[in-house]
Amino acid sequence: MTRSTSVESGIRVAVSTVILTLRRDDTGDARLALPLVLRTRDPHRGEWALPGGWLDESEGLSSAAARTLAETTGLAPSYLEQLYAFGAVDRSPSRVVSVVYWALVRAEDATAAIAQENVRWFDADDLPPLAFDHARIVEYALWRLRNKVGYSRVAQGFLPPEFTLADLREAYEAILGRRLDPANFRRQVDATRSLIPTNAFRTGSHRPARLYRDATDVELADRGPLSPEETRTS
Amino acid sequence: MTRSTSVESGIRVAVSTVILTLRRDDTGDARLALPLVLRTRDPHRGEWALPGGWLDESEGLSSAAARTLAETTGLAPSYLEQLYAFGAVDRSPSRVVSVVYWALVRAEDATAAIAQENVRWFDADDLPPLAFDHARIVEYALWRLRNKVGYSRVAQGFLPPEFTLADLREAYEAILGRRLDPANFRRQVDATRSLIPTNAFRTGSHRPARLYRDATDVELADRGPLSPEETRTS
DNA sequence: CCAAAAGTGTTTTAATTACACCCATGC
DNA sequence: GCATGGGTGTAATTAAAACACTTTTGG
Q1: B154-214 CATH
Q2: Is the pTM of this model over 0.85?
């Protein structure tokens, strides 16, 4: 497009996203799941890869992540954060720097997600062989999530606006892979003052459970150094 | 270089690094300091900017960070970690994605650093106006350091192989900007079992202080998802 | 001897954990 | 009634903080 060669480069910038949601397995337990795209072109044709695409010259990094996320799943994320920039020389036949994001989508959104050719949701700890270095990327995204759930409210990104403490605890348990004491969990979350109780209850089984919603309009977690556009609550 | 236009892009990839060290101020206290480069070309000619350069097609991201770090300071970092990828459309007149690293260098190395035209070391909380979005980047790097010092051994990246507990505490105090109780600090660090005492003492003033060195060969902190080359201890 | 930093001990407070127990609903 | 998850109470353990006190050097 431009005549000057000084603004051209043999290095291309891609943006990919590790999209996570909660899904119920056969036993009814919630488990982490993520969508992958079957590659129809070389390199790595026939292998599964993270959703993503080339960074357009006119869009920001997080915009590109949200765009490719919508293109592959039809969803808007409830949480989106940059994960890491991968740029080893040998990670692809051509020179590609991938800026990878990770996103959370609500469970009920994910079940309503558009079913698309070449896109499938996999259990996060039962993945097929992945293209490029994507296996390592997913592993790191899961590490980040498990870490961040310990000091932030990110887990609420999996839940609808109103939820019970058992819902929230189930999300934590699925992320951390271990059971949490209901009594202590309750005390810990209301010590953070991040939930406000509603007057509604979820009924249907045993004693009804109170529904809660977010106490504040602030972010679920620190998403890093955001540009002014990214700071706006969309 | 290549004839195919499909591997060309109007987006260029730059790598910059926030290089941090400890320096003594007039009162003898240790303070965080970092080198900046005076821009001699537009855009932002005459303003100070982070050391960095264009990513070469044949080098990895962290290699580029180490290379530009050596070019501007003549130093090798004792710690190097990716900070964030900045890619807002309007952060530069041309489209640039900057992958930013942060690095620690040892104090005595920094004082021996090559004095270079257009490069100056500034006190971290008394910086001149910076080019591009570099002020925000430095701020985030300092936040990351202050955060990471709480749950890792990164602070040792400022110190020589052998040091006293007072040296280490002084580094913590400079990073965190507050005093720490010597008694509690001692207990906390030896609870981590990350230091082993030597039989040497530092003398010269008052009661001699025992010298310690790193207990392990492992990294000072989790540097993120590293490629195989980056994992090698160089 | 005195000042000052190195190093130890002790008390208090807060956070975490484990677990007993009561409550309210569906069946 | 009774099984089950919702919700409260409480004791034990652990970690963090505050601070008095002893030790060892230089001057």
Answers
A1: 1.10.10.10
A2: yes
